[in-house]
Write a structure and sequence with these properties.
Number of helices of chain A: 13
Helix content of chain B: 55-70%
Distance between the termini of chain B: 37 Å
Number of strands of chain B: 0
Order of helices and strands of chain B: HHHHHHHHHHHH
Mean pLDDT of chain A: 93
Largest interface: A-B, 68 and 66 residues
Low-confidence stretches of chain B: 1-25
Shape of chain A: globular
CATH class of chain B: Mainly Alpha
Oligomer: heterodimer
Largest sheet of chain A: 2 strands, antiparallel
Strand content of chain B: under 5%
Number of helices of chain B: 12
Number of domains of chain B: 1
Low-confidence stretches of chain A: none
Helix content of chain A: 55-70%
Radius of gyration of chain B: 21 Å
Structural class of chain A: mainly alpha
């Protein structure tokens, strides 16, 4: 009786070797390839969190859809929020190739068993927030996500390529809104500066905890799921953003921010990691509201989904009997 | 690797040195580059008012549908409903811009700063009594069933009108209609599919869909009644008399409801136009408060 186990473990060892070789050669793992359970679990968790972030991320900006101050801005914002729903869909599909189920992942989001990016728990107080989210939040997301276009898992990497293209478009639209507002009235300029003051630090937190406090990072790097460390990406974002802020004419709210001529990088002040932990663990300004909205969308419309299923079943049966 | 670099380059260097990115958002001035001359024999004031009627229907319905974004039953539906709203918003922008191009701006132009484009002056600076949409689009969404029944009714009427407007003597209006027809055919189809699924789905969805029909049908009483202006413009070959599309609309709706196992109430007796003359329910005032609040707080701002 022990023979099959031995064979099984021999097979598994061979599969593992093949997997390691694929990763080492920087080739892609595809859905039907063998993969270690930990790799699969880590990917599902990461892709689901990313998908949830897209879906929850529709809300802070979506709160301005009805009130967008020009029809052009309304169209741009509506198209952007729609893109985010699309991103959520591709990502859930990528997670499904690993054996996850979208409805189950949605339940986990609503029951707070899976997280999403803490940035979306901050409220959007003025229309400048829409621009700043495009510029800083989408900008940070791009820095995080561009390397994922080379993620070792094929479906995730391919989804990210499309998402990154759209995100960079959103970032420009956000920046263009801010440029327009900075050329506008004093009240508009004040709104932009205020929004930058509120979103700058949370944007830096989007890269996750510092490298010496990021427990899963090393394994994810080894597996090619992650390509750069949190701190590297954060630094890249700061270096990219400082000249954009100067051009825009806003001040980034960090008195310690300055260019280090030796390294060519910008040094910046200490991030309030306690705030990050509070917000990500559910105590941010809008956590409850964000989840409540998703719960309502699921529960209040459960009868719609049931009806669609019932209709499909009836009509499949009718076709069959015809 | 190559891709990573291109995306960064696109972000960092598309500025061409002056820091101003090339946007190409596709959302810019609706009538840019279009010859807006009014053909001889058409009264510009009538044409502009007519464009307001059609534009306001689209704007108000777009605003209503937008409420479903982040609240829809499925992500696919969030995308679909946003698509419909975006199409209608696009139609509204073209039609309001057309009204502005022939000088129909009313009190809006006095209230809005000069730098605000005509479409926004009209959308953001008219009061409810200056809006020309029908009651059909300003009624509340209700649940998903009622929303889809209303969309079905509104898209069916609008598609029938737009199909005929492709031959309008105003070339701008004809072009707007030609573009809109494909969009509206999709809206009608999307709503009809939902009405079928809900009507012939579960007991609960059937009950809700029928309740939606019963609430929406009375709102059809004035959608096919022409105003004097529509009669004049129809005679001039510019507009469509909504009475002429009644039978077609009624046929389509009855067919869909029958297949959906729902009961179509009798078509309501024709009532004199209300919304087209600026008579509205309090719901429109509420909707406009959401739409216009921020723009009116900053009348000198450009966005």
């Amino acid at each position: 009786m022990s023979t099959p186990t031995v064979e099984h473990s021999l097979d598994e060892a061979a599969f593992h070797e093949h997997f390691d070789a694929t990763i080492a050669a920087d080739r892609r793992i595809e859905p039907r390839d063998w993969m270690p359970e930990g790799y699969r679990r880590t990917l599902i968790r990461q892709i689901a969190q990313h998908a949830h972030s897209e879906i929850i991320g529709m809300q802070p900006e979506g709160d301005w859809l009805l009130a967008a101050p020009s029809l052009r801005r309304k169209a741009i914002l509506l198209a952007k929020v729609q893109d985010e729903a699309g991103h959520g869909m591709y990502l859930y599909s990528a997670a499904e190739t690993l054996g996850a189920d979208r409805a189950d992942l949605t339940d986990k989001l609503i029951e707070r068993k899976q997280k999403y990016s803490s940035i979306f728990n901050y409220a959007t107080l003025t229309y400048a927030d829409v621009g700043v989210i495009g510029w800083l939040v989408d900008g940070a997301a791009i820095c995080n996500q561009v390397p994922l276009c080379r993620s070792s898992y094929g479906p995730y990497a391919r989804a990210m390529i499309r998402i990154c293209k759209e995100e960079s478009f959103h970032q420009r639209q956000g920046y263009e809104l801010l440029m327009t507002m900075m050329r506008g009235t004093p009240a508009q300029r004040a709104m932009v500066q205020d929004a930058v003051d509120r979103w700058w630090w949370p944007s830096l937190m989007m890269f996750g905890p510092p490298d010496d406090d990021s427990p899963n990072s090393a394994q994810s790097m080894a597996w090619g799921i992650k390509r750069h460390s949190n701190d590297e990406l954060r630094q890249r974002f700061v270096d990219m953003t400082v000249p954009q802020a100067e051009f825009l004419g806003v001040t980034l709210p960090d008195p310690e921010l300055r260019l280090d001529p030796e390294t060519g990088h910008h040094r910046f002040g200490a991030i309030d990691w306690d705030e990050f932990k509070r917000v990500i663990s559910g105590d941010g300004p809008a956590n409850a509201e964000r989840i409540a909205r998703r719960r309502a969308a699921r529960d209040d419309n459960a009868w719609v989904t049931e009806a669609a299923t019932a209709y499909a079943t009836k009509h499949a049966a009718r076709k069959h009997s015809a | 690797m190559a891709h990573e670099e291109t995306v960064y380059e696109a972000l960092d260097h598309a500025s061409g040195g002056d820091g101003h990115w090339a946007f190409g958002t596709g959302f810019d001035e609706p009538l840019a580059g279009v010859d807006t001359t009014v053909p001889e024999g058409i009264d510009p004031a009538d044409l502009g008012e007519y464009c307001l009627m059609l534009g306001d229907d689209a704007l108000v319905l777009a605003q209503q549908l937008t409420r479903w974004v982040t609240a829809a039953p499925e992500l696919e539906e969030e995308v679909a409903v946003a698509n419909v709203a975006l199409d209608l918003l696009g139609q509204a922008r073209l039609l309001l811009a057309r009204a502005g191009s022939v000088g129909v701006l009313g009190r809006a132009r006095e209230q809005a700063t000069e730098s605000i484009p005509d479409e926004d002056a009209l959308a953001y600076f008219r009061d409810p009594d200056e809006y020309r949409n029908t009651g059909l689009v300003e009624a509340p969404n209700g649940d998903f069933a009622r929303t889809m029944v209303r969309l079905l009714a509104a898209a069916t009427v609008r598609l029938a009108v737009f199909a005929r407007l492709r031959d309008s003597r105003d070339p701008v209006l004809a072009a707007i209609a030609a573009k809109g027809v494909n969009e509206l055919a999709y809206h009608r189809d999307h709503a009809a599919r939902w009405v079928l699924r809900l009507g012939d789905g579960t007991e609960e969805s059937h009950r809700r869909a029928q309740a939606g029909v019963d609430t929406v049908w009375p709102l059809l009483d004035d959608v096919c009644t022409a105003t004097d202006l529509e009669v004049r413009l129809t005679a001039a070959g510019v507009a469509v008399d909504p009475a002429d599309v009644r039978d077609e609309v009624s046929d389509v709706l009855t067919q869909v409801l029958e297949r959906a196992t729902l009961t179509a109430p009798d078509w309501p007796a024709a009532a004199p136009p209300r919304g087209r003359r600026g008579e509205h329910t309090p719901e429109l005032a509420e909707l406009l408060t959401d739409l216009q609040g921020l723009a009116r707080q900053h009348p000198a701002a450009t966005w």
